[in-house]
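sry for the spam today, last one i promise. C-alpha cells for design, 752 residues
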C-alpha cells in the first residue's frame, strides 16, 4: 500500500524495485501487472492460472495478451484508452485495472466524480489493505490512459447450458441487433414487392385503356425508384445474413471444440472416432439450416403477412382459393412426416456406420496394409455403402410422394387462378383485368413461402436428429465442471497411494485392488508385472485421467481430487510407449506450445533426452518438419523426442510408461544412461517390462492382477519375490548361459 502511495506522491515515477515479494524475490513491473489482473479476476470469483498467461521471457506482453488470458478463462475483457473524465465517472463497483506507464498496474476499486478522486489498490500488497485516493494530477504522472475492463461473460451461462434445440435458438436470438436489421429490411422488401403488381394493374387499367402518357411516365418513374430501393435493401439484407451466418458458425465451432476438449479421455476410448466426427459435422448442418432455410422462410413469412391482406383487398374469393390450396399442401406434407422421419433416421445411422469404417481404416492403415487386409476392409466398406445407399433410396422414394401430390395444388395456386378470375369477370364482372394480373403476380409469391414453410417442418425434423446426435457427444459429462477450481500448490513430488481400488467403467474385475505405496520426493519407483496387472492404471490415476477410484491418492500429502486438474497435469511429464507427435518442426514439437520457452530450452531438453545427436544430423536440425504420423522418424527417435517434450517444462514428477520398450538396445542404453541425470531432483515412476531399465530404482513394485505383490530394491526382490526372480532369470538367461559356457571353457582349459 505504501508503495502505491509512494508512487503517486513523488512527482517522478519511483524507480522500479519497490515491491519485495513475500518470498523475498523482487517483483518486476510485469509481475505486478499480472497480480493486478489476478486480483481483479478473483473479485469475480475467477481463479486464473498464471501459467496460462503467455509471456515470452524478457518481453512485456501487450494489453491484448491479458485480454486473451481473461477471455480464455471465461471472462469478458477489453483493453481500451480512457480519459480521466471517463474513469472518474465509472460508478459501478467492479474493479478496473489501470496499466501504468512503467509496465506495472494498479487496481481501481472506486471512483467519485463529485470529489474528482479515484481509489487505487496496490495489487502486491495484501488484499484487505485500504485503497489510496488519487486525484487527476497524481494519476496522470503514472498513467497514460490504458485500462483493462473485465466482468463475467454474460454468454457464459449459455456456454454451460446443455446443447439442445433451445440452446441453438438462444444462440440465434443473441444476435438481436443483426436480426432486427434483417427484419426491417425484409419488411421493406415485402412492401416493395407489392408495388410492381400494383403498378402493372395501373398500367393495364388506366394507361392502356385511357391512353394516358403522363400516367405512364409517372408509373415508369415509380418503377425505377422501387427497383433501385429493392436493389439496395436486398444487398444490405444479404450482407446482414452473411454476418449472422459467419458469427453463428464461429460461435458453434468454438463451443463444440471447447466442449470436446473438456471431455475425459475414457469418453474417447469408448466412442469410435468416426462417430464423434459425424456428430460434430452435424453441427455444421444445424448452422446451414439456421442461416439458410430457417432464416429465409422466416423472411418469406413476413412477406406473406404483408401480401395476404393486399390479396384480400384485390380479390377475396381468389385469396380463399389460394389459402385452401396451401392448407392441402401442408396437410399432405405433415401426413408423410412420421414415416419419412423413421427412414431418415435409418439412413443417418447407416451413414455413421460408414464413417466409422472409413476412420478406422485410415487410422489403422499400416496394419491394414501389412496384414494385407485391404479386401476385408473393402468388403466391409462395400457392405456399409450399399446399406447407406439403400436407406437413402428408401427415404427419398418416400419423399417423392408428397412432392408429387402437392404439384396439382401448386398448379392451381400459380396458374389456374387466372382462369377462375377470368371466369369471375365473365360471369358477374367482378374485378378488372389489371387486378387479375396483379393478383397473379402476388399469389405466386404466396405459394412459395407456404411450400417452403412446410418443407421447413420437414427440415426441422432433420435438425432435431442432428441436434440429438451432436448433443449425445457434447452433453457428456465433462472432466471438470469448473476448470479454475482447485489448489495449485508447488509440488515437492511425494506420491502416496493408500488402499486404492479402481474398476474401469463397464468392467467387472478390479484393475487396482487395495494398492498402497509411498514414493518419497526425488526418488524413483519402478513398476513391473505381467501385462494387464494394472501398471498403466496407476499412472492414469496419478494424472487424474480416471477419477472415480476409492481410497486415497495424495501428492505431498494433498488429496489428488483437491488439486486443480490442469495444474496437476502440467506438473507431470509423461512419456508413453506410443507417442503422438504433432505436425510441425522438431523445435515446435519439443516446446509443445508452452509459453516463454526458446530454442535454448529445446536444446537443453533434447540433450537430456539423448535426442540431440540425431536432431543435429537431420538436414534442417531443430527446424526439420515432422509430417502427420511422423513417418520421417524412426521409433527410437520419436521416443527420444517425446522424452524431450516431457522434460521441457522441468516437471517435478516424470512418468515413463514403457517409454523405452520400442527402442533398440543402443538407444535404450543411451536413454537409460540419461535417466539418472533426468531423475536428478525429480520423482520418477518408470513402468517397464525390461528389468534393466528399472534395476537402479530406489524401489521396485511388483504387481499382479491389480494387487501389489512386493515392493523393495532389486537385490531384495531377487532374494525374496518369486515373480521378480522369475522375470530376472528369464531376461538374463543369455548371461547365465554365457557364464556357464565360460565356466565350462575355463574348466576345460584347466583340465588340459
Ligand atoms: N481404458 C480401459 N477400459 C477398460 N478396461 C481397461 C482400460 N485400460 C485397461 N483396462 C483393464 O485394466 C486392467 C489393467 O490394465 P493396465 O493397462 O493398467 O495394465 P498394464 O499393467 O499397464 O499392462 P501392460 O503391461 O500390458 O501395459 C487390464 O485388465 C485391462 O484390461
Ligand atoms: Mg501398460
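last one done:
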Amino acid at each position: 500500500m505504501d508503495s502505491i502511495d509512494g508512487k503517486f506522491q513523488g512527482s517522478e515515477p519511483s524507480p522500479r524495485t519497490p515491491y519485495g515479494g513475500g518470498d523475498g524475490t523482487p517483483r518486476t513491473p510485469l509481475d505486478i501487472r499480472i497480480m493486478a489482473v489476478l486480483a481483479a479476476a478473483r473479485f469475480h470469483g475467477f481463479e486464473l492460472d498464471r501459467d496460462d498467461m503467455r509471456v515470452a521471457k524478457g518481453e512485456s506482453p501487450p494489453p491484448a495478451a491479458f485480454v486473451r488470458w481473461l477471455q480464455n478463462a471465461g471472462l469478458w475483457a477489453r483493453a481500451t484508452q480512457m480519459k480521466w473524465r471517463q474513469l472518474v465517472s465509472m460508478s459501478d463497483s467492479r474493479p478496473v485495472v489501470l496499466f501504468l506507464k512503467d509496465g506495472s498496474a494498479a487496481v481501481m476499486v472506486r471512483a467519485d466524480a463529485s470529489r474528482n478522486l479515484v481509489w487505487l489498490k496496490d495489487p502486491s500488497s495484501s488484499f484487505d489493505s485500504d485503497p489510496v485516493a488519487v486525484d487527476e494530477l497524481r494519476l496522470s504522472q503514472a498513467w497514460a490512459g490504458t485500462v483493462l475492463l473485465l466482468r463475467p461473460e454474460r454468454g457464459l451461462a449459455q456456454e454451460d447450458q446443455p446443447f439442445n434445440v433451445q440452446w441453438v435458438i438462444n444462440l440465434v436470438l443473441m444476435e438481436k441487433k443483426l436480426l432486427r436489421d434483417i427484419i426491417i429490411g425484409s419488411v421493406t422488401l415485402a412492401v416493395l414487392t407489392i408495388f410492381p403488381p400494383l403498378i402493372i394493374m395501373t398500367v393495364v387499367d388506366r394507361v392502356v385503356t385511357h391512353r394516358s402518357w403522363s400516367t405512364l411516365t409517372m408509373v415508369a418513374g415509380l418503377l425505377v425508384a422501387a427497383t433501385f430501393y429493392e436493389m439496395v435493401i436486398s444487398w444490405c439484407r444479404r450482407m446482414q445474413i452473411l454476418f449472422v451466418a459467419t458469427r453463428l458458425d464461429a460461435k458453434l465451432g468454438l463451443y463444440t471444440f471447447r466442449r470436446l476438449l473438456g471431455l475425459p479421455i475414457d469418453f474417447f476410448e469408448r466412442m469410435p472416432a468416426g462417430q464423434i466426427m459425424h456428430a460434430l459435422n452435424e453441427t455444421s448442418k444445424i448452422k446451414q439450416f439456421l442461416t439458410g432455410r430457417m432464416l429465409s422462410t422466416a423472411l418469406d413469412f413476413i412477406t406473406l403477412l404483408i401480401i395476404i391482406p393486399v390479396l384480400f383487398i384485390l380479390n377475396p374469393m381468389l385469396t380463399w382459393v389460394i389459402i385452401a390450396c396451401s392448407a392441402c399442401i401442408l396437410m399432405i406434407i405433415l401426413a408423410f412426416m412420421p414415416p419419412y422421419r423413421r427412414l431418415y433416421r435409418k439412413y443417418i445411422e447407416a451413414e455413421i456406420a460408414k464413417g466409422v469404417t472409413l476412420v478406422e481404416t485410415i487410422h489403422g492403415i499400416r496394419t491394414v496394409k501389412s496384414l494385407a487386409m485391404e479386401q476385408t476392409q473393402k468388403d466391409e466398406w462395400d457392405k456399409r455403402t450399399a446399406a447407406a445407399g439403400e436407406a437413402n433410396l428408401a427415404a427419398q422414394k418416400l419423399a417423392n410422394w408428397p412432392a408429387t401430390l402437392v404439384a396439382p395444388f401448386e398448379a392451381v395456386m400459380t396458374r389456374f387462378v387466372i382462369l377462375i378470375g377470368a371466369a369471375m369477370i365473365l360471369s358477374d364482372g367482378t374485378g378488372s383485368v389489371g387486378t387479375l394480373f396483379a393478383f397473379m403476380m402476388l399469389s405466386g409469391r404466396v405459394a412459395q413461402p407456404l411450400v417452403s414453410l412446410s418443407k421447413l417442418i420437414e427440415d426441422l425434423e432433420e435438425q432435431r436428429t442432428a441436434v440429438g446426435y451432436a448433443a449425445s457427444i457434447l452433453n457428456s459429462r465433462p472432466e471438470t465442471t469448473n476448470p479454475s477450481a482447485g489448489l495449485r500448490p508447488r509440488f515437492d513430488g511425494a506420491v502416496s497411494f493408500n488402499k486404492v481400488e479402481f474398476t474401469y467403467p463397464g468392467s467387472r474385475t478390479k484393475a487396482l485392488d487395495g494398492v498402497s505405496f509411498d514414493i518419497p520426493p526425488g526418488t524413483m519407483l519402478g513398476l513391473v508385472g505381467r501385462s494387464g496387472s494394472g501398471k498403466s492404471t496407476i499412472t492414469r490415476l496419478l494424472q487424474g485421467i480416471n477419477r472415480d477410484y476409492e481410497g486415497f491418492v495424495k501428492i505431498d500429502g494433498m488429496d489428488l481430487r483437491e488439486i486443480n486438474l490442469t495444474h496437476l497435469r502440467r506438473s507431470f511429464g509423461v512419456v508413453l510407449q506410443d507417442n503422438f507427435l504433432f505436425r510441425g518442426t522438431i523445435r515446435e514439437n519439443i516446446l509443445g506450445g508452452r509459453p516463454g520457452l526458446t530454442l535454448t530450452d529445446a536444446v537443453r531438453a533434447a540433450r537430456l533426452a539423448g535426442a540431440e545427436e540425431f536432431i543435429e544430423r537431420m538436414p534442417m536440425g531443430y527446424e526439420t518438419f515432422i509430417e502427420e504420423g511422423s513417418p520421417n522418424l524412426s521409433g527410437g527417435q520419436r521416443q527420444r523426442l517425446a522424452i524431450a517434450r516431457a522434460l521441457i517444462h522441468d516437471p517435478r514428477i516424470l512418468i515413463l510408461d514403457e517409454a523405452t520398450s520400442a527402442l533398440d538396445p543402443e538407444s535404450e542404453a543411451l536413454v537409460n544412461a540419461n535417466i539418472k541425470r533426468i531423475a536428478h531432483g525429480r520423482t520418477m515412476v518408470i513402468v517397464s517390462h525390461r528389468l534393466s531399465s528399472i534395476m537402479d530404482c530406489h524401489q521396485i513394485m511388483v504387481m499382479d492382477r491389480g494387487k501389489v505383490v512386493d515392493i523393495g530394491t532389486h537385490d531384495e526382490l531377487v532374494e525374496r519375490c518369486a515373480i521378480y526372480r522369475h522375470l530376472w532369470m528369464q531376461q538374463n538367461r543369455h548371461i547365465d548361459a554365457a557364464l556357464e559356457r565360460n565356466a565350462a571353457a575355463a574348466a576345460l582349459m584347466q583340465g588340459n
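Residues 5-24 have pLDDT under 50 and may be disordered. ok im logging off now
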